[in-house]
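Worked example

This section walks through a single chain of length 178. The input is the sequence exactly as stored; nothing has been trimmed or padded.
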Amino acid sequence: MNQPTHKVTVIGLGPMGRAMAAAYLDAGYEVTVWNRSPGKDTELVARGARRAADAAGAVAASGLTVLSLIDVDAMYTALAGADLGGRVLANLSSDVPDKARAAARWAQERGASYLTGGVNVPPTGIGQEGSSMFVSGPEDVYAAHRAALDLLSATDYRGTDAGYAQLYYQLNMIMFWT
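Given that input, the structure is written out below as tokens.
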């Protein structure tokens, strides 16, 4: 497991990923960004973020990679050619618990540690007081990277089962939408 530093990679630069990268820049982190479709990183690069040529380069740039993608399947596609050995993936993308568990096994088979997160605020809430997210995965990995995750949103650790964060997140969404 990589030790935490003030370096982070953000992969996936939709509204949520851009808000996350901006929060890290605001906190003084060295931020590397990558998105499969070009152009979404322009403002972040102007603020000091480093643009990676590909996802593999983005992962290599930092010990912690925060993923803000449409779902777990997008993670598999984006990281297919990346060397994940010794890296920490914090997948803050939405999906279902079983897919989060499978993703954790996939990452572990490739030598990475894996945290699942479910963010309970819209992009405008990232980095704001009162925001929260569920996190699950190995407790030591969570503890080592909690400060970096808490910059985005106060974390609520839900245990070692990688699916728990998504379970709680999905339950919150059901309650919210009803």
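What to look for: The beta strands are 7-11, 30-34, 50-51, 64-67, 88-91, 113-119, 132-136, 154-157.
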